[in-house]
Amino acid sequence: MGDEEFEAAVGDGLDRIPPELAAAMSNVVVLVADEPDEEQLAEARAAGDLDPDDPAATLLGLYEGTPLTERDGWWDAGSLPDRITVFKGPLLRLCDDVDDLVEEVAVTVVHEVAHHFGIDDERLHELGWG
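and the corresponding structure tokens:
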């Protein structure tokens, strides 16, 4: 899958977000990267999001920022946008075919957007978006 097709799949994932939630997203940008960098992986391991003993463990997506539930009245004074990054390489390696990839990209996008709204991994797993 080429870059344009992958970015279109990310856009399709964003389209799955109900309009009222999409309208509530604030100061966040969605990016595509080939692979997570070492700093992102190290932070995920330190946070318990990746198994520190599994060198093959990787990220499919990553939310970096301050969730809406943690922002106060002064938060946006000069704040850079939050970032949701979807990682192409890990997703391509995980999926067997294009249909599987499109579905996994959508799950990843919704999962990371949920973090923007302050929903943690435990609750996302309960809801089936783990």
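(Above: one complete record from the training split.) The radius of gyration is 15 Å.
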